[in-house]
Design a protein that fits this description.
383 residues, Immunoglobulin-like, seven-stranded antiparallel β-sheet, mainly beta, 3 domains, Jelly Rolls, 2 helices, elongated
Amino acid sequence: MKKISFIKTIFLSLLSIAFVSCEKDGKFKEYVYPEPKIESIYPASGYVASQVALIGEDFGDRMEPVEVMFGNVKATNIISCNNNRIIVEVPEGAESGKITLNLWTHSVQSSEDFTVIPTPTIQEIVSSTGDLFAKDGDVISVLGSAFGNSIEKVQVTIGGKTAEVTSVTENEIKFIIPAEFISGQVVITVDGYEVEGTSLINLNVEGDVTELFLQNSKQPFQRADASDSEWGTALYWTANSNFEPKALHFTEDEPDGMLVLRPTSKSDGAYYQIISLPEGKYTFKITVEKAIKGSGRYGARFAVAKSSGTFPILTGSATWDFVENDYVIGNIDLTRVVSETTEYSCDISLEETTTLTVGFATMLWTSNEIHISGISLKRSVNE
């Protein structure tokens, strides 16, 4: 009996505590949050992805209940929140007007408008020398939008070197290529907002130009896939349906990868990339680390062809050559069996800027393989 009476006493005590936390009608009390107040916003204008501070009071210090709206667009990145300041990133699609703060049970607006500045964009970079290329003194046009009309608010660099801006309109910036400029990316800055454009290559550059024209052509090779397996797909290279696309081989001995031409179940393999070269004389060099011949077809050539994605295919049996070679302007036979580093090269000459398909044509069966550690390119200017 005493035990039952004790349990009853505990139960009644808990019940009385519960009633203390409730209203007389049985509803729980609701906490009343103070109404926040936005006193100012800073800055009053900005680009998408720029930061804006809401200054005021009774914001609290928790970010979970904070919702900031730019028109009908919700900000997705609240940077910080304390009792008198919220810092938020202007979202994509933000609308000019009052900023709305939704916090707990309250919704308040700023007294002043926030103006979303149109984001500068680059659509095209036009050089008088030709696409991709330029030389000292060339006038370059950057075509796009939201550049404004103030030349004082615009800066341009190319390869990190400052260029002279000669005119600015809403849709075009003109600048002059600086003397002895370094090939590199064009970057414009409009009123503090930086936009990256394409690269321009110095038409007078000579020597090793591998990095300017070829992509992912030497160790360390870059993978296009996210896997860390032994075999991978090479970034920036295209394989036709008859070529094994996983052509990069990473091993303990070769952690930087090796480009391997290897057998497939079909003939007529092609592995290539498309490049554009200005007029000049060029030497392509292929570095083969080893070439293994087992049985079956053993044909492989490096080729430079005047085409845009159409790659020549091989024909023959013992001596392999191209079926159509009228547009092949340079090629290298890679079917020599070697067990040590061996370099091959071929020369081409161009009279004008030309689009080229550069890569490998294969007829490899069974255990035949060719391991390539690099492709390099040198240029001299035509005299």
